[in-house]
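quick one, 299 residues, struct below
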Amino acid sequence: MNIDFIKGVIVPILTPIDENELIDEAKLRDQVDYVIHGGVLGILAFGSNGEFYVVEEEEMERGLKIMVDQAAKRVPVYFGIGAISTKKCCRLARMAVENKAAGISVLQPMFLKPTESELYLHFKTIAESVPETPVLLYNNPGRVGYTMSAGLVERLAAEVPNIVGMKDTSGDITQTAEFIRRTRSTGFKVFGGKDTLLYASMCHGAVGGVCTAANFMPELITDVYNKYLAGDLAGSLEAQFQLNPVRLSMDPASFPVAAKDMANLRGRNAGLPYKPNLATPEGPVLDRIRKEMETAGLI
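---
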């Protein structure tokens, strides 16, 4: 299985919607072009910032088809899966492969508190349902309430052939480094999941990052990656420091609406989030976002 393409800045792309909360095809196609022109090396459909948790399955399939068509093999399109039941995850995985996703990303089940044995079987079963497709694990303890252990990831990497990488959004650089250290002999590909830690993650051996910032400032986040790859470590770190205040200004906003807010501030016309979320209202939170974007020269 060729996994050389799995690298770089991958964007968990926004899902633009119309007034009926249906995917706005024209805006989605425009967003695909925007992030590709901005330098991303992959698109993740229906990640956390793609609001997967409120999108109906038929809309997910329609959206994936649009993204794959618009990307036109310029970059790989991955499909994010965040369902709780193993059966539903397998169904979504097969749907994604049928619609030409280059790989799938699977979040650990939210709300539950599964044992290591249960998690192992969950991920193994999903991967075996699409045996010819690369599978990336997605560790997001802040959203699901628990973390994957390095031991679990090491075992999955060693024993399930098409589990070939992961995104770690723990924000704990020691944990990210452990995922990398304990799987490095297998060619397992670890992505940083915190935009503010892309440089640090790459210093420990990450192959890139899955970065929300690429939705509205792709030129900054890809600069961190490209300069690091070129050996310009000082330039990469400076790009990271330029990006971080903008990215941190998102945190006080209601998750995940700040990404669309910031895209709108840059003239991207990303529209509104799915309800119950609302756009960030005028006030101190939006003022800070606007100020940091102005300081960074983004608006």
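The longest helix spans residues 233-248.
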